[in-house]
Design goal:
Blueprint (H helix, E strand, L loop, with lengths): L5 H19 L7 E5 L5 E5 L5 E3 L4 E4 L5 E4 L15 H7 L6 E5 L3 E4 L1
Parallel strand pairs: 1-6
Antiparallel strand pairs: 1-4, 2-3, 2-5, 6-7
Length: 112
């Protein structure tokens, strides 16, 4: 005999699976706020765009689809971070889940 609840159970399971990514990454939609807490102004290129100043104590919002390069010079030629951090790197540092991380001197990254 068929279980009369089977179709409803399958639909609920499928809906739950579809909602998992949003629940796993609450930062996905609005992005991660990255704050420049170095003692200097930096520059960055987001998505290979223009070289933009990143003033000390200001933020840049990074979304999963974004690429970011951080520089120590105003012409965006000298990388500040040896390996440019990605959204995934920033997300892995967000231990408290508030979608906020910081860049400290010598490109040390940590939760904020």
């Amino acid at each position: 005999m068929k279980n009369p609840g089977w179709p409803a159970t399958m639909v609920l399971m499928m809906l739950k699976e579809l909602s998992v990514p949003a629940a796993e990454d609450p930062c996905r939609e609005k992005g991660i706020v990255v704050k420049n807490l170095t003692t200097i102004d930096l520059w960055y290129e987001k998505n290979k765009g223009e070289c933009t100043i990143w003033i000390h104590n200001h933020i840049v919002r990074i979304k999963p689809e974004d690429t970011v390069e951080i520089f120590s010079d105003m012409v965006c030629k000298t990388h500040y971070c040896e390996a440019n951090p990605t959204y995934k790197n920033f997300k892995s540092l967000d231990e408290n889940g508030n979608c906020r991380v910081r860049v400290l001197p010598d490109c040390n990254l940590s939760d904020m």
